[in-house]
Amino acid sequence: MTGQLPDAGITGLLDGTVPPGIYRLPVTESAARTLTLAAEAGWRAARLRLDGVGDKAAFLDKCAADLGFPGWFGHNWDALADCLMDFSWWRKDGEPSGYLLLAEDWDTFRKSAPEDARMAETIFRDAIDFWAGRETPLAVLLV
């Protein structure tokens, strides 16, 4: 289940006082400000723009394009999990403090393709759990 970001907000997520997870971006926050805060905290962040995405194939294509997945991405659920649990393709300038994905228009995608959205959330959660045991956590904010 996706939760509301606790009172410590984005700053708490980035400084580690809020545990990594899948949270709703508060309506009082913007994606642009969130990306700025993440960069200032040393996190690697990316926007996943899901406007007009209504099925698994389109979702995976958007992930590949917006997140800059490597050429070996196989456009299936297993490959998505592989990319989210091996960020060697995303570490260009050293080790970040964490990883942040902003999934924009999530509710539209979820309404268009509920089973695909559930599977994507499961993969997000598995990746969050994987990174939680390491120095570089992963968090997902749904916008």
From TrEMBL:
Pfam families: Barstar. Residues 44-142 form the Barstar (barnase inhibitor) domain. Belongs to the barstar family. This is Barstar family protein. It comes from Streptomyces orinoci (Streptoverticillium orinoci).
